[in-house]
From TrEMBL:
GO terms for biological process: carbohydrate catabolic process; small molecule metabolic process. It comes from Streptomyces fructofermentans. Residues 17-288 form the Carbohydrate kinase PfkB domain. Keywords: ATP-binding, Kinase, Nucleotide-binding, Transferase. GO terms for molecular function: 1-phosphofructokinase activity; ATP binding. Belongs to the carbohydrate kinase PfkB family. InterPro entries: 1-PFruKinase, PfkB_dom, Ribokinase-like, Tagatose/fructose_Pkinase. Gene3D superfamilies: 3.40.1190.20. It holds the Pfam family PfkB. This is 1-phosphofructokinase. GO terms for cellular component: cytosol.
């Protein structure tokens, strides 16, 4: 079982539009409504893969009730923590050329009692979890050290932790030794405080995060592929992708693919890339099912192309 923790979940509305013209009336060609938040997306991808998952998340108001209903309809066990504020609603506009514009609401502010209830819910539901995936931004009210406290408590209980967050929350949690962290290129550059121009730059940055406490780093480099840097070695993987429809949740699908494949080594990296590649070819934040995966298009190598210039360098 994979337990996910989403401190700042959302109700996500995605509209497909021909083009985004400011000041004009735009008629959508398609629309979706999905439960959102990075941990929620990981649970959705795990469920789509046919594995059991439990989603721990604070929910409030009518949007929160709808998120719970949508998750339940997808076969996901929900462990809600009731909060006074309403769950946030986000909007994504997906253009025909693959460009995505997102409007993310701030979400409710959690009280000290609500924060502790969230930690307690994780403790109660984590006894039979193979992995705990802690994902996304922290809502108002939570200190940057909240994830660090969660990692420390979970490790004391013998659980393995995958962490997907950024900024001060990521840096604070590194000292507690999360089993794997999953930054994208921008988050990786922000963590080490310097630009990334090549795959080799990304490898060095990942190694620095390991030096700060992360046991493994699964780094997404966008269209260029993904890196896995761990005690067991360094691997690079990429996949050929057809038409990109939406990258919403693609990184979360990758993390789910990594965890359902065991969460370590080149085999898990290949699964991560296959899931991410499938996700970007689906509308909105639809999570890939096994039939959507094309593992034959994935290449994994320990001969990392360190001199390759990133398609989208991070300044």
């Amino acid at each position: 079982m994979i337990l996910t923790v989403t401190p700042n979940p959302s109700l996500d509305r995605t509209y497909e539009v021909p083009a985004l013209d400011r000041g004009e009336v735009i008629r959508a060609t398609g629309e979706r409504m999905d439960p959102g938040g990075k941990g929620v997306n990981v649970s959705r991808a795990v469920a789509a893969a046919g594995r059991r998952t439990v989603a721990v998340l604070p929910l409030g108001g009518a949007p929160g009730a709808l998120v719970a209903d949508l998750l339940d309809a997808q076969g996901i066990e929900v462990a809600p923590v009731a909060v006074a504020g309403a769950t946030r609603s986000n909007i994504a506009l997906a253009e025909a050329d693959g460009v995505l514009t997102k409007i993310n609401a701030p979400g409710p502010e959690l009280s000290a009692a609500e924060q502790e209830s969230l930690l307690e819910a994780v403790r109660v539901r984590s006894a039979d979890a193979d992995w705990i995936a802690c994902c996304g931004s922290l809502p108002r009210g939570l200190a940057p050290t909240w994830y660090a406290e969660l990692v420390a408590r979970s490790h004391r209980a013998g659980a393995r932790i995958a962490l997907d967050t950024s900024g001060p929350a990521l840096l604070a949690a590194l000292r507690e030794g999360p089993d794997v962290v999953k930054p994208n290129a921008e988050e990786l550059a922000g963590a080490v405080g310097r630009p990334l121009a090549t795959v080799g730059d990304a490898v060095k940055a990942a190694e620095e995060l390991r030096g700060l406490g992360a046991r493994a780093v699964l780094a997404s480099l966008g269209a260029d592929g993904q890196l896995l840097v761990s005690e067991g070695g360094v691997w690079f993987a990429s996949a050929r992708v057809g038409v990109v429809r939406s990258n919403v949740g693609a990184g979360d699908a990758s993390l789910a693919g990594f965890l359902v494949a065991g969460g370590e080594g080149p085999g898990a990296l290949a699964s991560a890339v296959a899931h991410g590649a499938a996700a970007v070819q689906l509308p909105g934040s639809v999570m890939p099912r096994p039939a959507d995966l094309d593992p034959d298009e994935v290449t994994v190598t320990s001969a990392v192309p360190v001199d390759r210039v990133l398609t989208e360098p991070v300044s």
